[in-house]
Amino acid sequence: MSQTVIESPAIETNGGTLRLPADAPLRLDSGATLAPLEIAYKTYGRLNAERSNAVLVCHALTGDQHAASVHPITGKPGWWNRVIGPGLPLDPDRYFIICTNVVGGCMGSTGPSSIDPATGKPFGLTFPVITIADMVRAQAMLLDALGIETLFAAVGGSMGGMQVLQWAADYPHRLHSAVCIAAAARHSAQNIAFHEVGRQAIMADPDWRGGAYEAHGVRPEKGLAVARMAAHITYLSEAALQRKFGRELQRDGLSWGFDAPDFQVESYLRYQGASFVDRFDANSYLYITRALDYFDLAASHGGVLANAFRRARDVRFCVLSFSSDWLYSTGESRDIVRALNAAGCRASFVEIETDKGHDAIFLEEPVLHSALRGFFESQASRRGLA
Amino acid sequence: MTALREDFKEILRLVRPNTRVLDVGCGEGDLLELLTQEKGVDGQGLEISPSGVAACLAKGIAAVQGDGDRDLDHFPTQAFDYAILSKTLQQMREPRHVLTELMRIADRALVSVPNFGHWRMRWALLTQGRMPETKALPDPWWSTPNIHLCTLRDFTTLCAELGLRIEACAAVSPDQPARNIDPARPIENWRAETALFLLTRERPRPPAPERTTTGDLFD
Fold this sequence. Notes:
The complex is a heterodimer of chains A (386) and B (219). Chain A is of the alpha/beta class. Chain A has eleven helices and twelve strands. Chain A has an eight-stranded mixed beta sheet with strand order 1-4-6-5-9-10-11-12, sandwiched between helices. A two-stranded antiparallel sheet of chain A has the order 2-3. Chain A is globular. By secondary structure, chain B is an alpha/beta fold. Chain B has helices at residues 6-14, 30-39, 50-59, 68-71, 95-105, 119-127, 152-161, 186-191, and strands spanning 20-24, 42-47, 63-65, 80-86, 106-114, 164-173, 176-180, 194-201. Chain B has an eight-stranded mixed beta sheet with strand order 3-2-1-4-5-8-6-7, sandwiched between helices. In chain B, helix 3 (50-59) links the parallel strand 2 and strand 3 (63-65). The relative contact order of chain B is 0.14. The chains are: A alpha/beta (386), B alpha/beta (219). The A-B interface holds A 316, 318, 334, 337-338, 341-344, 346-353, 367, 370-371, 373-375, 377-378, 381 and B 42, 44, 50, 53-54, 56-66, 71, 74-76, 79.
């Protein structure tokens, strides 16, 4: 176990996979049901006697439950190790932090690569289409199993932020506070368009085999890598790309060909694509991007976003955006805040000045961290947490 | 901590405990922090500068980054007991609209405005013929954020037009104790540097008593 060496010994880490029996199915928005259901999760810290210190951390499109623990495949530190840890805004000494792999994911929760009990083969495209609300419903089932009635906070960035909004809409009574970072209340045409490029890249790969690639012993790695490359551009700002790479070349002079990458930015994107396929499943990518594209919180509440939050007046919200994020821009966060205000909810909102783009969620961003710290501190004292 | 600002003291005196307070232009949240600690209010700030909002959040004050000119429209009717607008009205693009919105959102508004009718202003204009630069309004005309300056009388006239009742009024300054004043008295339009108003929506009431004075200098 090499990971225990890197992992901070101060964090008490637990978790596993919750297996729900066939008679307790997950009811999906599509009308289908999913049973038996598995939800893989990690926990950091310890639940207090009052069961009042639980924090649900929701991951983004290609994230997973390893928010603050070393990733079992890549060996890299947790994706939010700048936020979760001793002395950090989410301190496992104080909070019981739970992070689940979303339904449809590929890190242990039931998804398209899981075995369909009806056929004994991987689901592939026979897996039902899932939504953000379905992911949240599965998380609520996990909390039930863990004996947690109320969350001190639900926190997430990007798709994680959308899950947080869905939590506020569907389970406001189980939520004390909510933090939504760099997200949107609906997927825009541009968001959907970029996802469609990614999906088409996967499906155009001959190794995709109509989604049944596992049965053929192949994986659509090229298509998935291209999908990741296209998506990765949307996570960075133009300024950040320019600052990191500019027009720097890989070697002296141009190659006058297409065999090798000429520019460093090409090489970087190829690396991002190639390393992604090691840890992510192509069909999961299709299903989760679909879930994001279907997300429109106002549409499911009579076309008025504020209606989604009318029952959440006791929940304290913190909405954060990044100035250079063009994937889910500040305007999207502002719409959320206006709807929260219109619904009579208490909300804090700040646009954090940065040139790091959408990716700033995971990067060193002092204002993000001090805002999170201040918000959690004030909510902890309101909640009576030591 | 530095000594408590005198205008803050007066606001602290006027706000009832355990109420809901919206501070428009809350800066780094000093006033809301004070009101939360001393009066147990449920506070919410609106502030245009990101660094101000970040400072609020770090203090545990709920604050939204936004623009008083644009974002008040999104708050629901009567969501707050008090709306505070401290020396910001004169920086708004549409002060009249902002005032109307404040009185829609909250039952009471605490509004402070620098008085352009103060004798120092009049003296500077009269003797130098230039836009005054004073302690209350220190910036030269070309860099001042104050685009809609008014006198005490201008403000009370607007309140009357909008059907707002002045429940209380005090002359305030950062370093001198607040002094309760009758804003209708012409002398106050000369000597109040900044005035703090407690406003409510006008209720039906008997006709106003006859005014003894209507003017200022030439009454």
